[in-house]
Write a structure and sequence with these properties.
5 strands, PPIase_PpiC, 12% strand, 251 residues, rotamase, 2 domains, EC 5.2.1.8, PrsA_foldase, five-stranded antiparallel sheet, Chitinase A, domain 3, peptidylprolyl isomerase, 11 helices, alpha+beta, Triger factor/SurA peptide-binding fold
């Protein structure tokens, strides 16, 4: 006979405590209240059409294609239909507050930090020995070996080796300063001289430099970053009074 285990609200709270999740949950609660209060003060309202559109997107993203799948998902997460509607409402409210606060600040921010959004298509490998890196650099530039051939011999990571060291499109802000300076000074396609960092000696082939462009992806990245910074500042202003009961006993 299988064992029956009953889970109570107290069990859930205790597990949250034992998983060190209390600070994270408190932060989420406070952020939720900050956003709701700010939206109300700004006079932001949510329309029925916006709720329906967001609910449809939510169901699609979570593969809730029918009523049965939706109810199963709600039961799995111990959510009522009212809870689901609250999630959707908060999602719309948060998005509209973000746009209200920062939609007109995205372009100025982008042009002020334009260089940070430049990117490059690169191939890369890292070796431990500087003399070896120099030897491989000349072997590649003098066409004794291709970058791919060198990568097959010296890259330890299996997946990266299979791709011949191809890193794809890498943003400037993802690179170490000493690497980004060399990469964005290159005239592609160009093999860079070995670059020494704390990780080792980098051999990098720059295939293409991609100039920054304010597309929808970058726009979303910027506005999300601005909103997160604002929320962090607002969070720091809040005095949090926690009334959680602790089981600490001192004999």
């Amino acid at each position: 006979m299988s064992q029956v285990i009953t889970i109570t609200n107290e069990d859930i709270l205790q597990q949250v405590k034992l998983s060190y999740k209390i600070p994270e949950i408190i932060e989420q609660i406070v952020n939720r209240q900050i956003i709701t209060t700010a939206a109300n003060e700004a006079g932001i309202t949510v329309e029925t059409e916006e709720l329906q559109e967001t609910a449809n997107k939510f169901r699609f993203m979570n593969k809730l294609l029918g009523a049965d799948e939706t109810w199963k998902w709600l039961n799995k997460h111990s959510l009522s239909l009212d809870d689901f509607e609250e999630i959707v409402h908060y999602t719309v409210l948060s998005g509209k507050l973000t746009a209200h606060l920062f939609a007109d600040k995205v372009e100025p921010y982008f042009y002020e930090h334009q260089l940070d959004y430049a990117s490059a298509v690169i191939y890369e490998m890292v070796v431990d020995d500087e003399d070896l890196a120099t030897e491989l650099f000349y072997a590649i530039t003098e066409e004794e070996m291709s970058f791919y051939e060198v990568a097959q011999q010296y890259i330890q990571d299996v997946e990266l080796r299979r791709k011949g060291g191809y890193r794809g499109i890498v943003q400037r802000q993802e690179m170490k300063p000493e690497i980004s300076a060399a990469v964005f000074a290159a005239t592609p396609p160009q093999m860079l001289k070995p670059i020494l960092t704390s990780k080792g000696v980098h051999l990098i082939l720059v295939e293409e430099i991609i100039q920054p462009k304010l597309d929808e992806k970058v726009r979303l990245e910027i506005i999300s970053s601005l909103f997160a910074e604002w929320l962090n500042r607002e969070f720091e202003k809040v005095e949090i009074v926690s009334k959680l009961e602790l089981n600490n006993k001192i004999d």
